[in-house]
Design goal:
homodimer, alpha/beta, seven-stranded parallel beta sheet, five-stranded parallel beta sheet
Chain lengths: 303, 303
């Protein structure tokens, strides 16, 4: 099949799709995507522009798990199927969440600040075993975090937009309206919520006060955690540490007090990075190709 | 029972033993331990001095998992039972090993070096899922690392002094004479071997060459990994990173090139630290007390 690949995509994607024998890959330059779509039915892309919606377009495979950049209604009206990259990020983001968490509890962050000054300063470290970890956002990635935490002897609870009928790895799940209550029961809060108008500031002053002397990890979207409230919780609220991959403004401005905070570990929005991204996206694409070609169900259909 | 506690011990030990209702705790000053042992049968200690061996001594509970500091033959001859603290370190050292490993694969170490300069520099990161992890030293701690790695989807192999009849979490185990072969099959080598004459330099030039483009973690003892060979492997052998909690000389000398190496993560011998150390040592002590009082078997008897 002929597939147009938008030129902006994570490393490994083009290699994986080029190597797929059933795919005739078209790789236009940034300003030639619309032209390449003339007569083409399938587009693999992270970005969206109105000119991509040619009469021949039938299927958009998103390169990202979130799909808020796409005009859902308009695609539906035009008879275009949209599929997400759900599942492609789960293993690496789960590992990244634990990397940030363990860097706080085992003192890697503060040790590395010491290391740059060649200072040998043993400090008390903590244990995760037996602690309660709350996953805010029990989607595909959140479940992978919950699964790994359970296997390591943590008690897992969480928040999910639609908790009814939940059958995942968390012992207890509540809706977003109970986020403060869930944070109160947790030693560790891992935030992996997508950015929507209703999730902005979801983990704010009240949730952080409820968490108290715990640890906060954010591998979702920056705006979901209120940064001003976070800094206040670190300085005055007893919060023991924060591991952050995402920020309200990225790159994190030089003026942010987070850079210098000894109990903060920072990575530059790399939680989703993986050399296996391409192979997994191709897997998702192939599953969806069955739906496109009428051989089976779509695997990650959004609309 | 009357128990003499040597004054040098990890944080939390004295509190836990003081709170135990069945224990009458004696806490001598550093130079008064021998005097306190006059007429006492039970000593809880990390350190050993010949003067501790009074005629009344019947049982030494070690505060450490390793017991090479004790005169085994002499204790046996005197009819003194020695019990180790085996199991007390397993959860925190396992978490620490993963903290070091994930700090390398998810780029926390290098990101924290950037953070001290307020630099936002996304770099490729790696995944553990599906990789082969070799545990050199499948004892109590090594098994805990193997268990957690298996639960996270890694393939686990390892080395054990006596591999015959092995029934643990590793898929395949070999004796120390096959350490190079085991390293050849591994993407990740986690070293958790105690220091004995036969383990010094066990992970040397050949083992590191066999590991190749992998990651090395050492949470055992410094001398087990040949540091000169390690630095050469990092600079010229393609080794992707090293996470080190222990060193040939501690504190690590300011002249060591390890401090400045961008692919090295260092912690100052803190893998065994845990606020739960005291409660777990008390648990081990109580299990052994059953043996001492003839109510059941000794739990961690060495001699």
């Amino acid at each position: 099949v002929r597939v147009v690949l938008h030129p902006r995509h994570p490393r490994g994607v083009a290699d994986a799709f080029r190597a797929a024998p059933e795919i005739e890959l078209v790789e236009p330059a940034p300003d030639e995507v619309a032209a390449a779509m003339d007569g083409s039915a399938i587009l693999v892309t992270h970005a969206w522009e109105p000119s991509f919606l040619t009469p021949s377009l039938r299927w958009v495979q998103s390169v990202s798990a979130g799909v808020d950049q796409f005009p859902l209604e308009q695609l539906t009206t035009a008879g275009v199927t949209l599929t997400s990259a759900r599942g492609v990020h789960a293993p690496q983001v789960a590992e990244h969440a634990f990397a940030l968490l363990l860097s706080l509890t085992r003192g890697i962050g503060v040790a590395m600040r010491d290391v740059t000054r060649k200072e040998w300063r043993p400090r008390m470290a903590e244990e995760l075993t037996g602690r309660t970890l709350a996953v805010i956002g029990l989607g595909t990635i959140g479940e992978e975090i919950a699964r790994r935490a359970s296997a390591w002897g943590l008690d897992v609870i969480g928040v999910k937009a639609n908790p009814a009928g939940y059958a995942g790895h968390a012992r207890m799940v509540a809706g977003p309206e109970r986020v403060v209550d869930i944070c109160r029961q947790a030693d560790i809060v891992v935030c992996v919520v997508p950015a929507t108008p209703s999730t902005m500031g979801l983990v704010g002053k009240d949730a952080l006060a409820a968490l108290g002397a715990g640890w906060l990890i954010n591998v979702g979207r920056g705006g979901v955690v209120d940064e001003e409230a976070l800094i206040d919780a670190l300085d005055n609220g007893g919060l023991r540490g924060a591991g952050l991959d995402v920020f309200a403004t990225e790159p994190l401005p030089a003026t942010s007090p987070l850079w210098d905070h000894p109990r903060v570990v920072i990575t530059p929005h790399t939680a989703g990075f993986s050399p296996r991204y391409g192979e997994r996206l191709l897997e998702v694409f192939r599953d969806n190709l069955d739906g496109y070609q009428g051989r089976g169900p779509w695997s990650t259909r959004v609309r």
